[in-house]
């Protein structure tokens, strides 16, 4: 196998790239300016070394803590829980969220060997324990597994006094946060449904409305 | 009339051709194995977007080729529109007026399609899963959100079964709730469907069979609790130890039982083969009538050699009691006495994959 064929084979492992587009890219690279190709190669080579996960939230960053965690103008009482680092970018694009994030690194799915232990739920609990957070927004994808994960976290925190809400199901069922358009996410950020109310705020209402059962 | 022409390209054993239809009733004549059913399947694919015979769509492509397509003209309130079903190297695309559709609901909104086949008797005397399938299919013909509920429930059960094997009580607490919620949605829709469906079914069975019995579908859900999620949840919890022992979810809509009862007894259990065939035909006829009523759309009917199974009287009544339809495709064996149905007009011969039109 020659170098060109080899590259085609490697490129076609990329998401969304079939063998046809892989061949087109490979031919393009062969004809392209050699300085640009070398630059591209070095950027790819450096990527995994220079970009790591933020020690606090799990976001992709070169400096840990990441720019979001170290931005003190953001609302530190609010944490949005997402499945993957790329989900942060999607929500940031809406411009409607000014709190902090927590990346779980996946969802609970025993079929795929993913239990709660495999996710960064422990680190989330630690963050909450260290204080200052009042509200959690769970933005896992509206899949069965995303829902399981959300309910699991709510269950763990049911006596925490935190307000917990979930992105309203404006997202298409079975959809992925990554593919949902900005407007949809923005809308569901505004219309998020409360899963758990802080006990204090319930008391302060006087005659508390009964907590809406999850099911 | 629904379809005015169908173009076939590298589909099953059929020759590439374009067939023009001028009638509401289309008659196809041929020996078995020549391609009649393949043609009905083509019509079904154009209406529904999947096959009634197989889930393995690569079988739809003619041996030795990598792609196939079916293209049809249909009339929509006098306007001619185009619909295309295409498979290319494992990729399926469906287009209406050259616009790719993303949701199957767009397709089903054109015309529902009901296929009557010999295999339908399995819905009556086959395993319980097939009767659930028939009911699921009937609901999804007019309520597409049911498919989402069912998919969600099935996924939850799959995950729950894995959690049972791993004895993860912490996860089972969550899955129990998710199963109760999504399963109850499935159960409620089945109850409602069967209740409504029965009035059509009993009526048609009585009139087509000529028997003086009141046959109806009886639904025995696995969750025999009141229909609240709390009641279902505690029922699931009560059964968790047993589920752990069997390493599988032993209760829920995936274990529902559905049977055919008359005067309090299981009619299908003692029925003759002829009676079972008749029940299966009435099931489909009811499905067609019910779907037409629910969706307000006249269906396209496909009848694959099934008329042969009835005596002349029942056959007449059966045809009389079919709901109003947009178009019907009937297949016959060459020596079947087509004159009983048709005196003149075009008919189509299917021979070794070749379809040719002729006048009677
Ligand atoms: Zn961070």
In short:
The complex is a heterodimer of chains A (215) and B (360). With 215 residues, chain A is α/β, with parallel strands linked by helices.
Written account of the structure:
The complex is a heterodimer of chains A (215) and B (360). Chain A has a five-stranded mixed β-sheet with strand order 4-3-5-6-7. In chain A, strands 1-2 form a two-stranded antiparallel ribbon. In chain A, strand 1 (52-53) and strand 2 form a beta hairpin. Chain A contains eight helices and seven strands, in the order H-H-H-E-E-E-H-E-H-E-H-E-H-E-H. Chain A folds into two domains: 3-50, RecR Domain 1 (Helicase, Ruva Protein, domain 3, Orthogonal Bundle); 75-196, Dna Topoisomerase Vi A Subunit, Chain: A, domain 2. Chain A is 40% helix and 12% strand. Chain A is α/β, with parallel strands linked by helices. Chain A has helices spanning 3-11, 19-31, 34-50, 85-94, 121-129, 144-156, 182-190, 199-204, and strands at residues 52-53, 60-61, 78-82, 100-103, 135-138, 163-166, 193-196. Chain A is elongated. Chain A starts with a helix and ends in an 11-residue tail after the last helix. Chain B has 360 residues and is an alpha/beta fold. Chain B folds into two domains: 1-112 and 297-360, P-loop containing nucleotide triphosphate hydrolases (Rossmann fold, 3-Layer(aba) Sandwich), CATH 3.40.50; 124-280, RecF/RecN/SMC, N-terminal domain (Glutathione S-transferase Yfyf (Class Pi), Chain A, domain 2), CATH 1.20.1050. Chain B is built from eleven helices and 15 strands. Chain B has helices at 36-48, 104-108, 122-125, 128-140, 145-165, 169-209, 229-238, 240-246, 267-270, 273-295, 312-321; strands at residues 3-9, 17-20, 25-29, 67-76, 79-88, 91-96, 99-100, 113-116, 215-220, 257-262, 265-266, 300-304, 327-332, 346-351, 354-359. In chain B, the strands form three sheets. A six-stranded antiparallel β-sheet of chain B has the order 2-1-4-5-6-7, with helices on one face. The longest helix of chain B is centred in the middle third of the chain and has 41 residues, at 169-209. Chain B is globular. The two termini of chain B are 20 Å apart. The interface between A and B is medium-sized, with 18 and 23 residues. The site of zinc ion (ZN) has 8 residues of chain A, from loops.
